[in-house]
Amino acid sequence: GLFDVLMPGLALGVPVVAARLPKFSPEDCANVVRQAAVTHAFFPPTALRVLKAADTQIDGFKAIGSGGEPLGAEMLDWGRRAFGVTINEFYGQTECNLVASSCGALFAPRPGAIGKPVPGHEIAVLGEDGRPTEGEGDVAVRRGSASMMLGYWNRPEETAAKFAGDWMLTGDRGIWEGDYLRFVGREDDVITSSGYRIGPAEIEDCLLMHPAVATVGVVGKPDALRTEIVKAYVVPRAGVIPSDDLASELQSWVKERLARYSYPREIGFLEALPMTVTGKVIRKELKARAARETEGAV
Question: Is residue 183 part of a domain?
Fold first, then answer.
């Protein structure tokens, strides 16, 4: 926020609008945008899902950014209809922020891909041997990027572990598609099932296309036979009643659109997902819940 929003706003003389609300709601969001004549906004994916579930439409935007989790084709299409602009996704970490991005004004976005490296940053996908690869691997940023940290304060061991030679390791998995970087998932979020490595984001995006789904979180649930199975925790839209029939319908929905091995073998319905203050799904809590279910504690 400081380097990506406040400092550029100060340098360019652009007012930055902040609103302290007891809870994010589509109505309050739309009111703030209209009252303050907001033209540029950042919405985390969870906020976009809430706005989409409420069929929100807001005019007047010139640009919208989002980051934290990948957006899919359905969300990008909805954004164009709801806001009149293409949502630009970007990627970075606290240790080195905004290193890859989409930019609708310069090139067409590719659904499911983060975008391209931002000028001034060199990104690689490293294989098991620590060398750049064209296959799936660890997303890394070359040491020396302008927004890169010098190190963790008074934690030299952790700083050393964050780097491998000239590369800062992000802990995320990705793959190149031409010059577009596709985000597979956090290393500890990738689901290993029957020998397949499955990223949760694609499954979540697919389920979000279903009219009964408001939001969803997908994690791996421990399984003796398959190592893990795909488990989806779904928050239904208002007025939708959870049922076994709906769960089966959602499973078929994914089977028809994605690889059959990636469909959720189990679906649970929740009233809300655990979220961070910035609107990200706390997968660790969903994983813990799934583990307790396996142990018979839930």
Answer: no
